[in-house]
Amino acid sequence: MRLAAGRGKTTAAAALLGAAALGLAFEARSAGLVFSFWPPGEMVDIGGRRLRLVCEGPTQSAKPVVLFESGAFGFSGDWAYAQAALTAQGLRSCAYDRAGLGLSDPSPEPRDGINVARDLERLLAAAHVPGPYVLVGHSMAGARVHLFANRNPDKVAGLVLVDSTPPEGLDDPLVREYIAKFTAETHAAAVAASLGMLKLLAGTHLGDKIGLPPEQDHEKRRQFASARYNRIAYEEVVRWPLTAQQARKTGPLDPRWPVAVITAGIDPGPVGRAMQAAQTPPAKASRRGHIEVVQEATHNGLLSAPFAGSIVRGIDFVLDSVSEADSGRTGRGKPPDSRA
Fold first, then answer.
1. pLDDT tens digits, 284-335
2. Got the DSSP string for 10-24?
3. Measured between alpha carbons, how far is residue 174 from residues 78, 163, 273, 276, 277 in Å?
């Protein structure tokens, strides 16, 4: 028994030393890469603050702009593979860093859904990115794109929800249980980052669960270790229920908007099944709905190179639906019954 305990301590110590070595290697690599590339995108002034916007593809396109909204702890780089695929198709797409995340300046306003939506509206206006938009949201962003769509109905062509929880999903007690647990974990991460502890793990697989290209991977890992990044991410997550409530108050999505739901197929148990079940109602409520279950994908893995094609298929479905609808009417992307 003593020998087994000793081996256990040795193994734990070796694991800690290994994590520390990876963290130090990451810090050294980061120091060497600080000026080795220019981060993609532009910094746009939205009125005394700047948000980072990353747009790709032709500036002139007859099709709607694809607009990406990241989930918790997300930033513009999370969509690197999806954006590259859309660019190859000749489509225009834009992703951005919410206030305080990525390269964007922090905001003095609480990080609830309404304030985030206002930031995005100001960003698109200042950067002269006209609608209509195909709104693509991952994870926690399900409530955000719902809220943005109903605040800007004349600028919406359709929605793509990527393993995303819509606002009504919080009616399920198992979903609420998951969110409460995730909130506690996010708070722990913020505390650990403030103590510098996450620097030891930034070089491990935890630093980039997607597997991004080198430039975006570099940014993702630096943010993983950042105290400010983790603090603001926590401020967003703790307001997830409020954001969902704000979204629900705007009413349901217009059934004329095509909605594609792309969900990860790996089932992590009863809570995971509840999270999966909560995703599909927006597509079922739409007159033009699409649901794809990507069996081998994880929640973050859907954004990776092997599975980003499923996101693109969802976007293509929405764009094709818009084209079909446009053949019989004018004013693409604008539902007849717009909501204020």
1. 999 999 999 999 999 999 999 999 999 999 999 999 999 887 775 644 444 4
2. HHHHHHHHHHHHHHH
3. 27, 16, 9, 11, 11
Q: Which two tokens stand for residue 171?
A: 């009616």
Q: What is the pLDDT of residues 71-90, one digit of tens each?
A: 999 999 999 999 999 999 99
Is the residue at 260 inside a domain? yes
Q: How far apart are the first and last CA of the chain?
A: 70
Q: What is the CA radius of gyration of the chain?
A: 20
Distances (CA, A) of 13 to 4, 17, 21, 189, 198: 14, 6, 12, 22, 17
Q: How many CB atoms lie within 10 A of CB 108?
A: 8
pLDDT tens-place string over residues 83-127: 999 999 999 999 999 999 999 999 999 999 999 999 999 999 999
Phi/psi region, residue 139 (left: phi>0; alpha: psi -120 to 50; beta: rest), is left
C-alpha to C-alpha distance for 196 and 226, rounded to whole angstroms? 8
CATH number at residue 114: 3.40.50.1820
In order of 84, 207, 230, 319, 325, the CA distances from 77 in angstroms are 11, 14, 17, 23, 32
pLDDT for res 61: 82
Count other Cβ atoms within 10 Å, centred on residue 227: 15
- Whether 165 is in a domain gets the answer yes
**13 in a structural domain:** no
CA distance 34 to 295: 38
Question: Order of strands across the sheet with 93-96?
Answer: 42-45, 50-56, 93-96, 65-69, 133-138, 156-162, 259-264, 289-294
